[in-house]
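Write out this protein's structure.
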Amino acid sequence: MRKVLVTGSSGLIGSEAVEHFDRKGCEVIGVDNNMRRVFFGDPGDTSWNLERLRSCTKHFTHYNVDIRDRIALEELFRTHRSDLIIHCAAQPSHDKAREIPILDFEVNALGTVNLLEVTRLHCPEAVFVLLSTNKVYGDAPNEIPLKELETRWDYASPDDYNGIDEKCRIDRTLHSLFGASKASADLMAQEYGRYFGMNVGVFRGGCLTGPAHSGVELHGFLSYLVKVTLSGGVYTVFGYKGKQVRDNIHSHDVVRAIEEFAANPRPGEVYNLGGGRENSISILEAISKVQEMTGKKLNWKYAAENRKGDHICYITNLSKLRSHFPKWSITLGLNEIFHQIIEDHFKRLRMADRGI
């Protein structure tokens, strides 16, 4: 693999991919126009991460290109015929999407089609990976019978112990507008793989996390929780008694899954990607862990109404991914994930105190 193009290259997964493939000596093309700042304001600004990448990489070039601009993408892809395209750019929040439905759809659905088409025209042999989301399943996972435990919800039947697999339906369910725009992108990516025979893979991510996350209330569960705990702000828990469960996967393990797919692509294939049961945690459990690890008490409040279409308990079944790519595994557990995020936020606070 000689040349890798990454969209959303200043974001969590994008920046991890940039660093990973740069270390391997690949020429890395980054595409990012800091739309996260447009979506979420200053707290979502990723320019700090771009500057970090520029300082720590050797083979990385950044392009400030909007994926909605097909003409600009045509020019970029004519110039850089890449071997691997990793599409991470997105509007990532299902709450935010209801405020900006047209922008959300243009970025998530149209932007993806633009990238698929310029790949087909200019580098059809390349591997194309779409970072999709478990929100394409809408609230269908909530139909699985649950049991209430002291600090979390869990699946009531032993048959569901390993979580949600790829057979979960994506239609006849409440998605949120974000889930619908990402489902559109997901289906188009599959179609380009199956119809045109392109090396397209789709990864339906759960809670993707790590220290490079610019977490905000509407997106970035663990990063935002740590940020509020350390800054002394107020954290709001939305519904389900704070017992809703997510499985968390470090950005490094996400990129390793992409790398394994790129080495042995399966056109049009879909994989659920998350931390699995061993990396699952409820909000109440996460609050307790952050307080214990930081020595700081979180000021939080409870809002009884849950987020519309939100999952109550979502644990990723990794069986298909592991069977297709046996060299891949989860390498970073929850304790290490929390440690890295906490250390990074402490570092940012110290730098802010020094005016850096």
